[in-house]
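Lab notes, practical 5.
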Amino acid sequence: MKYGKKVLALLTAAVMTMGMALPALAADVTVAVSTRVLNDKYLVEPVKVTIPDNGTVLDAIKDVKVSGSEKTTETAGTHNGNPVTLYETGIFNYRSSEYGPYLYAVDVPGHSSVNRYFDDDGTASDWSNASGEDYTYDRAIADLEAKYNLGNTWNNIVHVDNELTELDYNNNSGWMVLTKDADGKYTTNNNGLSTVLKDGDEVLVSFTMFMGLDLGQNSYINNGSAWVPESAFPGSFAE
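Output from the prediction step:
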């Protein structure tokens, strides 16, 4: 009996020691949601969240809490004629894709076809949440349109009221996921919501009007027959 108690005590001590020696299986990261290219503001100021070790950006945004946007839904839908699953988590709207979860919209209360960040072709809007100025890189977009004979890429549409979605305003707009590199600059690895994060990472979910070129990112443009590389718009940056 005494021998059994000693063994049990030793095993218990060993388990406790092992538990104390294990590293924390979590990472603290910072997430912000930006509409800087539209109105020089954040939708969500930088906030720290805790995710599982080797967690992703998707894990991080699920932990971003915005008052009045606590919904979590999962529904069947289609995209370009293909069946997909549509998800809502807080203010974020994403769908399944062959490349993993894809962020296509973020809730923006009041945003509509009447209340727009820009009037036609990136000109100034008088909506209270707009900058009141023309889109900063309208000349750069015009140059690309001419270079590749794209025609007018501005569609001047807000597709869903109370959301800011891909293809709003311009045929090349959408949401990008960026992380801060060792030099303190935001960059993208093009893994989007599937980007694996480590402790201390800083994530920026930012709207782009033109394939990330207005966020300081080199990117690709569809010239009508192929995707071709293009350099970031001069003076552009992500913040």
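Observations recorded by the TA: The first helix runs from residue 2 to 21. The first strand starts at residue 26 and ends at 34.
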